[in-house]
Amino acid sequence: MDEDKYKRTKYTVMETMLECDQPDTLNEADDINDSHAEVTALSTNESDEPQNDPTKNPDVLCLRYGVNDNPPVHLSLILALQNVMLSFGANLLISFTIADLACAERNDLIRVKLFCTSVFMVGLTTIVQSAFGMRLPMFQGASGAFLGPLLSMRTAGIWSCDFVGDVGIHQNSTNLTSYVNASMVTRQEMVYIRVTELQGSLMVAGLVTEVLLAGTGFLGYLANLVGPITICATITSLGISIYPIPISYSSSFLPVALCGSLLMILHITYLAEVKVPIPKVLCSRCTKTNVVSSEQEDSQKSQKLPMFRIFSILLSVIATWILCAILTLAGVFPDDPKEPSYNARTDRGGDIISISPWFYFPYPGQFGAIRFNMAVFIGFVNSYLCSSVESLGDYIMVSRVTGTFPPPRHAINRGILTEGVLGIVAGALGAGHATTSFSDNIVLIQLTQVASRSVMILAGFICLLFGVFGKVGAVMASIPDPVIGGVYVVTCGLLVATGISSLKKVDLSSTRNIAVLGISLYLGLVASEWTKLNKDSINTGHPSLDQVLKVTIGNQMFVAGLTSVVLDNTVKAPHFHHGHQVGTITSHSIPEASGLAASRRHSNVLYTHNDSGGQPRIFAIDNNSGRRLATLTIEGAHSHDWEDIAAGPCPNGGHCIYVADTGGNAGNYEANILYRIQEPSSIYDQTIHVESTIHFRWDQHDCETIMVAPDAETYLVSKTSHSHDSKVFHVPKSAWGNSGSNPVYISSHTSLAFYSSSPSPVGGDISPDGTEVLLKSYGHIYYWSVPDKNYIRALGTNPETLPYTGERQGESICWDSRGSGYYTTSEGTNVPLYYYARY
Q: Taking CA 115 as the corner, what is the angle to CA 111 and CA 119, rounded to the nearest 5 degrees?
């Protein structure tokens, strides 16, 4: 950055006159908080490096500092600390919960080691992810998805904490007999044994899930099975299943816990919009040269942020910690460690603070020889998959906020692969959990409008420093129980609410959706409680198999998630809801949208084009807002009368865009052209070359529908007129590449069975799996189920009529990339973009 930008003179020439207004509340980021439902299919056939450059996106949000910008050192330090502190509470809770589930004592030094190791891994993963993985400002935090398998181990009785003096190995894990030569172990030894089991299981699970799936690109196939109902069932079940944790912490002294909960509620509700002035970040983007007076400059020196909402956990912890200190000095809490309320004392951790080293460096084997537990491994496999889905959604969120949307799929592959590799490192060091991207830090980027990669890398280095200062971990480990319990009550509730919020675009009046969601949630709950009440009912004669079954059935999150995946992908519904406006096409470059196609490479991108005349251009728009993302200029093409667009496979592999220059406005309906263009790997303003063309002749006057099947075969449907019926044509793949001097002649195969009073159809599409067809007239949408993919025969039969919201001059329709609904829009300016979800 230029130093001149920060010099204070009476009149300063600045490049920052276009004010980057601060959003009033976090609510402005609500549209990105359901992005867990927006899963990008992955691929590994990309060879080019991702171009995460905000300047290439024509609709970049106004950012004070972009991805490649470097704020001043002092400002970077403040911003980095803010990111660290925002996630500090969650990291603390998860590492302490792992210690509890391993049955560690409240003053056990292992709590310090686990916390320091956890923070160290958070910092290391953040640095690697931001610098080499996604290469976007991604903060990685401890993933709560890894608590589910451990909770099921506890409820199933496999990891019981009911110790009486020494315990036998056989009571806890049959896998230990090959590692421990003694017949009896102490409680502390058992804690270390369990932690080392977590290490080995975490490493192997990370290798066979994120590393293998992201490395091969197979994760994309699994991700396509995950919809918003599955995300809701999984996250909500996780939030419900961990209810014993806040109860355990709060029971030591309920009044303090209630006070903490009330403070958090106060911060995130009634005080959420109370803003505190802080030094203002000077704009470095969205700029234009101008002159600023000293008075104007002074007014720009500060800004206000909702600090209570941003630091709700931190402020609540500090306040209730002080309250516990006052009550401790007043003698309210007993001195007897056997009393439950003793754990509310602030001086109970004095010993652990005094014996903790000033510096502590996590290293492999710090808890002993790494072990493996099959039951934990099975649970962690599910945790990694859930964490991957969460990260995929966050990648889309951060790419939108930073103006780099959509993220290239090979960058997403690299991001998930980074999480997997660092998850293996976390297992080796003994963190007990892997990391995932933190949504709260992404919202913070939008709040501060600072998306600098260097700031996030600095935040990672700060976490590394916290991780090696043992005294910091010891102080955190001494936090009184009710302080943690009070915060946990609210955070668990917010976790459940986060899961429910993923249903934002799901029609809950549908019996099918209600059934899938309700059965999934209740089956997970019943399976978990049954395992808890019937710990000895599973007895196959093989103890290791018994453990696997108990952990699998008792894992509420896993059972609910698996049930919802199966039901949501097998219980197909032939009906669709009425149109829901998801956005508005406001770009002045798109006054006559005359076709829609859902990208097969970028899950949240739709392609459209203008009607007759104009330049040969395709526009990429966001399917959640209608915002123009990029303009693709097609070199080697001419726009006589472009009428429709389709997306589908290329004949020789890959993904292509197909454009039909087949409209009657061209004046010569005997010469028509189809264009085929390779889909770009990254979305930004660019020029793309035509890959191939088909020049053809026929006896039709007008055609506004092109459809491409999964086998790359092309179908055209002509438009009715006074002298022509609407007919279906198959254009063979062999026709691609012919010259304009030798156009191929195509003849019809069948006529459409339905009659429309207006010229139709004006658009259509074949579903991604090839089993369904949509055709659109100006007043209706027609549907055919084609399980045998014989489209010629199917379109000669009577169709069903689907819901349609009337439009000004609607000529555009397409399936979404998963086939779970369809989009429509109209010609004109500021036209709505409608989505019709499947029941």
A: 175
Give 608 or 641, the one with higher predicted confidence. Answer: 608
Structure tokens that stand for 503 in this block: 């249903």
Query: Measuring CA to CA, how many Å separate 52 from each of 11, 310, 407, 660, 685?
Result: 36, 27, 7, 31, 13
pLDDT of residue 674: 94
Whether residue 22 is predicted with pLDDT greater than 60 in this model: the reply is no
Tokens linked to 421: 């590799």
Q: Which residue has the tokens 């966050």?
A: 394
**DSSP type of residue 636:** T
Q: Which residues pair with 764 in a beta bridge?
A: 775
Print the SS3 string covering 573-603. Answer: CCCECCCEEEEEECCCCCCCEEEEEECCCCC
Q: Is 322 helix (H, G, I), strand (E, B) or coil?
A: helix
Chain-centroid distance, C-alpha 672: 43
Render pLDDT for 28-80 as a digit per residue (tens, 0 to 9). 333 333 333 333 333 333 333 333 343 444 344 467 788 888 888 877 887 78
CA nearest neighbour of 201 among 349, 102, 94: 102
Q: What is the DSSP string of 115-154?
A: HHHHHHHHHHHHHHHHHTSS-S---EEE-GGGHHHHHHHH
Nearest residue to 71 (alpha-carbon basis) of 279, 275, 276, 277: 279
- The pLDDT, as a whole number, for residue 667 is 43
Cα dist from 784 to 274, 695, 754, 781, whole Å: 54, 29, 12, 10
Q: Which two tokens stand for residue 303?
A: 């800004």
Q: Which residues contact 529 (CB under 8 A, 6 or more apart)?
A: none
Look at residue 575 and tell me whether its pLDDT is greater than 70.
Answer: yes
**In sequence order, which residues have a C-beta less than 8 Å from that of residue 76 and are 6 or more positions away?**
70, 452, 454, 455, 458
Rounded to two decimals, what is the model's pTM? 0.61
- The encoded tokens of residue 288 equal 């234009």
Number of C-beta neighbours around residue 534 at 10 A = 13
Tokens of 423: 């998850």
* Cβ atoms of 42 and 409 closer than 8 Å: yes
Q: What is the pLDDT of residues 755-768, one digit of tens each?
A: 665 667 999 999 99
Q: Is the pLDDT of residue 608 over 60?
A: yes
Q: How far apart are CA 694 and CA 452, in angstroms?
A: 47
**Residue 75 has what pLDDT?**
76
Are 677 and 648 in contact, with CB atoms under 8 Å apart? Answer: no
Rounded Cα distance, 387 and 817, in Å: 22
Residue 543: asked if its preceding bond is cis (omega within 30°), the reply is no
CA distance readout (Å), 169 to 110, 172, 175, 544, 626: 20, 6, 9, 14, 61
Helices (H), 330-373: 350-355
CA dist., res. 573 & res. 501, Å (int)? 23
CA distance 83 to 372: 34
DSSP 211: I
- Strand ordering across the sheet containing 593-598: 593-598, 605-610, 617-622, 628-635, 686-689
CA torsion sign, 108 to 112 to 113 to 115?
Answer: positive
The CA dihedral of 28, 29, 30, 33, to the nearest 10 degrees, is: 180
pLDDT in tens, 400-434: 677 765 667 778 888 899 999 999 999 999 888 88
Contacting residues for 596 by C-beta, under 8 A, at least 6 apart: 606, 607, 608, 645, 763, 765, 812, 813, 814, 823, 824, 825
